[in-house]
Structures are given as structure tokens and as C-alpha cells.
Amino acid sequence: MEDNILDNIKAHLSNGFEKDFFEEAIKNLEVHSRLRLSNFSYAIRELIREVLSRMGPDEKVRSSEWFEPHFEEEPQKITKKQRMTYAIHGGINPDYVLKSLSIDIGAITKDLNDKINRLSKYTHVTEKIFYEDNEKSSNDILKHELSIFSEFLTAIHDCKTRVIEALYDRLSNHVIDEFLSTSITKIDELSTHHYVEDIWINEVYIEEINDTNIDIIGLWINNYISRF
Predict the structure, then answer these.
(1) Residue 225, SS3?
(2) What is the pTM assigned to this prediction?
(3) Terminus of the chain with fewer CB atoms < 10 Å: N or C?
């Protein structure tokens, strides 16, 4: 088995149930049964559902301004795409993410959904799947099915990182504009003439993007001010 694939998956799973569930899913590959691949794939599909529920909790997704019911008869039901959308950029409007941050969430979630569909291939046991299962080795399964699962988890993490980095750039510019447009009262009291020579921001850390807020910590502003 490819340890790097397993390690990457575990790095994106939460401690406790998710990691324990994953370990049990792997054990399906050690059973000499024609259904081992189908059982394994079914377990991974359920694990994805659990991971997405953690990343996109029901109440958070529904309270996001962009949420719209997808099922007319079940308006409270949430789709996988909506959970993935929340996992990547929280309650931020997708139009803002596309137009202001230049990140196409629609294309990203389509790719993620395609990966889920590929992982679901073996959950429906047909005659072909039944006999194909018996011919695959555990290493073959790992390199194919688990690599897709690993790519799925990595893609969500990387896309969220892209959103955070783009927000950081816009935040920095906004803070600088606010600083330059606001009178520095204490300097005004000491000097009738002054100007800002330079300004920069260190350590802006976006801690969380949820349904209502973007939580930011560690903001320091450094500046050079000349007065005369």
C-alpha cells in the first residue's frame, strides 16, 4: 500500500470517528470475498458523506445567504454541492468569490462531484463488477479508489486555501486604504503637518469563514510617519 496516500487522507480526517471508520474501511480489502471492493467503496462513500457533513453542517449551510432549497418537497434537505460550497468559502456569496476573487466555485464543485461519482462505481454490484472485484489486488484498489479519495480531500483544502489567500490580499488593501483615509488624531495633536511615508501589514490570519462572519486574528500595522 502507498503510505503517502493513506497519510494524506488521514491528515484531512478528524480524530475519532472519521479516522476509526477509515481504518475499518481499509480492513475490507483484507477479506477474501468477491464483495470486498463493493463493501470498501460503500464505506468510503459513507465516509465522504460524514466528512462533508462536518465541513458543511446543516444549520450553517441553511443560514448562508446564498442557500436556496434544491428539493421542492424537502426544502431543508442539503445537497453535496451545497456542502462542498460551504466547505470552501462558508457563507460568502459565490458571485463575490467568482467576480472579486476570480475563483470559479461551480467548476470546482463539479470536479469534486465527478470524483464522488467515480468512487461510487463499485457500490452498485453488477455481474461485471462482481467478477472484476475478484481480479483486483489490494494495491490496485488502493492506487485507484484511494487516490481519488485523497485527491477529493486535497482539492477541498486547496480551494479553501485559495479563497483565504485571495481574501487576505483584498483585506490588506482595504486596511491600508482605511488607514490612509483616516486622520491620526494623536499625531495631529503633536504636529500641524505630517504625512505617512510607508505602511505595511504583518500577520493577518483568517481563522474561520463561517455562515455569518470572517474571523480574523493577529493584525499588526506598521508605518513610518514624518512630521514637521
Answers:
(1) strand
(2) 0.78
(3) C
